[in-house]
């Protein structure tokens, strides 16, 4: 039998042991709680740092990277800054931020295209109205030219007509850049007529020297005539604008394996490599055209060439340097755009430079060659002097000048002689416009109703006729004025 003191001692011992066990567990629990609190504080600190870093990254994205990405759409050479923390590159966060920039750029491109398309549509409508007004003014000026025989008034009217032609060309180029049709309906025409027709639309056309080395009768199909004239006019305009006024622009017409090439050489400053690459990209017509990328004010010539080359399957190259240190521009017309006209039934315009192919191979002294003087224009119905072989030869300003001696003074024509010559010229021009084929074989003047209201038609030979009339009027007014060529000019 256990006694009471032993029971008490055992109970106290058990209680003590239980108290000790409970105390140890409590201590361990408190230590674990303190560690958890420390870890929680550490995690909270890390989370706060991550939030601050993410906020800074978003602020950097909004303030620096997004504007730079938007600017890069218009200026590809600009760089977009990277993230603030390089360690985020390649992480899910970094990939997500890059996707934001790509989506932004894609949307900016789409919006720019839509806005530019709307602007081009508005400009197309405006240029239609301008072209219609300029065509009405052109008809009024031609009516006045045919109505009055006064040489001074005729010269003024011809000058106004030429200024109106230049304004019409600018409106036509703007319409083409905005996606409109070229605006003129033409029949098949000689290549040389299309080239001189484009030349006659420019200020300073007297500086252009055209050398025709094509076979007689080389012509363009009807739908390629006006595009070729527009492209030649714009290439010549660039050459004239970017070269000294006392230099010439040389144009050569040559046969090549796949068709015909029109080569334009100027003596300007040329272009840098970046300018040449940009110009070649525009004339190739590979990239879409945006008005906002054409400068202020917009330079539409090369952009119009790009539209036409892509639409009519033509080729233009401006990546070469001319022999005179400037720019060489080459227009290539492939064989499927070429035709042939009978040079006897439908000869080129009287003012067009005669082809060197007419010269007999055995001739050596008077054979035309590239770089020789361009023949002076002949009025319709007048025959040029012939050599002993019966072939036409070049006319010079004076025999004495050709021989190296002093040129004799040219006698001043009497007023009645000048009036009679101008009247005969106007009568011949009117006959050429009204008949099915004029005395020089020019194409008829066709103007449809829709073309009158929107993009009126024009004759093949109007530019040459107007330039011939300008030459006659200038000669009647000033006997000392230099002879000039109407459609294919030589100073």
Helix-strand blueprint:
Elements: H1 4-74, H2 92-147, H3 151-177, E1 189-190, H4 191-199, E2 208-212, E3 218-220, H5 222-241, E4 249-256, E5 259-265, H6 273-284, H7 301-312, E6 315-321, E7 327-334, E8 338-340, H8 399-403, H9 415-434, H10 449-453, H11 462-477
Descriptive account of the structure:
The protein has 11 helices and 8 strands. The relative contact order is 0.11. It has a 5-stranded mixed β-sheet. The protein is an alpha+beta fold and 491 residues long. The chain is rod-shaped, with a radius of gyration of 40 Å. Helix 1 runs parallel beside helix 2 (92-147).
Query: Which word captures the global form?
Result: rod-shaped
The parts where pLDDT drops under 50 for at least 5 residues are 359-410, 432-491
Question: Count of DSSP E strands?
Answer: 8
Portion of residues in helices?
A: 40-55%
Please state the CA-atom Rg, rounded to the nearest Å: 40 Å
Largest sheet: 5 strands, mixed
Q: Which tags fit this structure?
A:
three-stranded antiparallel beta sheet, five-stranded mixed beta sheet, 8 strands, single chain, 491 residues, alpha+beta, disordered C terminus
